[in-house]
């Protein structure tokens, strides 16, 4: 799930829960792919990730919350996974938080953007940025 450069600065949100669970843009992209493909293997192909990585992410999501985010139906024709009602609500809440964070930080982001060095080579990334892009 490689990130693309945007022409404007933006805020992304990653929630780190007290029980060790994580929910952020990567999980949203996986949920969207599962919704579209109706299977974890289809989502893995669409995202260019291994099936194992996607399955482990779905498993972690389902164990993070009391209600499952993704329901799986092994061997079912026409799709082996779907987003639950709780999963849809979780996505909506995340998107609301992300919109509010973006609105609240707009002026600060504009100020920071005005001070950018536009000759910066994005290939020279920090270790943290490399981890985020992996």
TrEMBL record:
InterPro entries recorded: Molybdate_resp_trans_reg (IPR051815), WH-like_DNA-bd_sf (IPR036388), WH_DNA-bd_sf (IPR036390)
Annotated transmembrane regions: none
Domain of life of the source: Bacteria
Protein name: Molybdate transport system regulatory protein
């Amino acid at each position: 799930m490689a990130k693309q450069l945007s022409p404007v600065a933006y805020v992304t949100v990653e929630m780190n829960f007290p029980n060790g669970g994580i929910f952020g843009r990567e999980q949203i992209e996986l949920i969207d792919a599962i919704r579209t493909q109706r299977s974890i293997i289809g989502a893995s192909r669409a995202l260019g990730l291994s099936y194992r990585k996607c399955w482990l992410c779905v498993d972690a999501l389902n164990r993070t919350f009391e209600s499952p985010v993704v329901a799986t139906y092994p061997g079912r024709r026409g799709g082996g996974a779907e987003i639950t009602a709780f999963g849809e609500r979780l996505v909506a809440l995340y998107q609301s938080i992300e919109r509010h964070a973006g609105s609240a930080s707009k002026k600060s982001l504009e100020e920071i953007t005005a001070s950018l060095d536009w000759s910066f080579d994005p290939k020279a990334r920090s270790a943290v940025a490399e981890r985020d892009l992996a």
